Amino acid sequence: MSQSEAGVQYAKALKAGQKTYRECVLAGRYPYLQILDEILTNSMISGRVDLGVIDVPAEQIVGTKSAGRTRAFAADFMPLLPPSSEFAAKWTELCAAHLGDEGIRDPIRCYEYMGRFYVQEGNKRVSVLKSFGARSVPGYVTRLIPVYSDDEAVAMYYEFLDFYRLSSLYGVYFSRRGGYAKLQAALGYDPDHVWSEEERRRFQSSFFFFREAFRKLGGAELGITPADALLVWLEFYPLGTIKELSTAEIHKTLAAIWPDVRARAEAEPIEVNLDAPDEPPPERGIIGRILGGKATANHVNVAFVNLPDPAHSAWTAAHDMGRRTLEQAMYREVSVRVYNLENGDDIESAMERAVAEGAEVVFATAPPLISACRKLAARYPEVKVLNCAVAMPYPGVRTYYSRVYEGKFITGAIAGALAKSGRIGYVAGSPIFGVPASINAFALGALLTNPAARIDLEWSCVNPEPAAALISRGAELISNRDIPWQGELGGGLGLARVESDGSLTSLASPYWDWGSFYIRLVSSILRGGWEALNYKGSGKAVNYWWGMSAGVVGLELADELPDGPRSLANILCRSIIEGEITVFHRRYRSQDGSVVSDGNRWLSPEDVLHMDWLVDTVDGRIPGFDELLPMSRRLVRLLGVYRDSLPPEKGGAAL
Q: Do the Cβ atoms of 178 and 644 come closer than 8 Å?
């Protein structure tokens, strides 16, 4: 009986092999097995390691060690020779043994090179087992280690070698560097944690079911691996959840976060939206009269989630003021609920409560809320979820921020006009996306009015007394922390003059007008603007990055500011709003001496947002992660200009 079944199996395998052969020929690919001896030379190998007998992932067995009977197999190891051949008889005999009590017991012998396996002995055994869909094949493996180089594939393979030393696992591959370290951290393991047999078995079982769901959703077409997708999934669910879910439920949870998985495949996963809607909001009170507009009969329920409570943070207090402005301007169109949280509160429960209480739009006003936002968006795709942050590559959550560097350019021009010695101080917050742009914009503004201007840079995330350090080095003016909202200029905030007694007198400052932002965005949502600006089809996330032209960045000028610089500031403000001046469209060099722009280059929004360099008139540098005060590190992990190069944090976000 087994012999008869084996003959039927050979016929099926032969048909599959012929199909693979035809497809390869039509696609211009080599239709037979790859031959390791034709790929490698001795100079490409730095060493050999005998791994003993292991379970070799069947899908990673791609060829043979030497030519031999290569043309007896299609590229997928299915047979090509006719049923009457001696080859077919031996194949059928092996198949019968596999179907009988004896089974195929002897391990194959093969070589592993760059994560792929090439058979030295046992090609027909592999063919038989693959024809039955075997997940693995027992094999005695010799690993061939390539000579290290900066080639991307080689560097990634060396990362795999480190991972294998810890996990003893094949079959887990990533499309980009850093994936193995992120997986180790996402699973809650220390970087040097060696997996136990139980941990390895549990992961393999879970990963198998996850990989099947990934493939059924069309993951093979994305250009990323199942392991890449698993990293995204682990940001929403713990690995142990897979064993508790049915195959259909795994498929459902992965489908819910599929936009985020697709974004992982994008080289540029974020679409930056620079322009606020042209159509103004409905006329309501003083804001309505200023902005003008027409009424709408639509209504939307909006929730604001703040962390920390506005009573304890100038940042969230500014957003809360914006929320109150929204309610005043659009009281007929908008119903608002506020959820104020403190560190340690259950953020996800608060957001769930917001949706249960009718929220259709959720504004989370602090970057650390991004993880809870992503989970909420996956559970409730009909809810519009936004997080106040920049450069977050998650299509399920839209992010928003302001181009405050435009205001910094103007205060830099004021500083250059007033600084007699040209020595100007600058206090930067943290090295996150957008901050280098503000520093550079300020420096270019100073050069506009004072070609001798130098910017002395200090970081408050490194030095708790940055202004004092700048004063001790002779700064005449200091660009200090900006005011949170209009009307709060004073106390040495913003651009400040250093007095003879060391005190600071505020002269000018950009500010964030969150009220204008929330009014414009909610009005756009009511008019269908959310759907019109939908990049989900492209797999990209949306980042609203509006500036002075949208009214979300303003400039406050103090009475102490002289008339000349005041007039200059007003002229520059109007010119930026009307598009007559673009901050970075001028000549400048970076600190390494290279010409960034000759005056004719237009920087893209992505170029500006992702600046990780400083212009050559800035004295100072971007601090490394280890230099930061502990309180600053969480934000820098989320939004830091060098976040992709940071070692992943155990249990942290795997961006």
A: yes
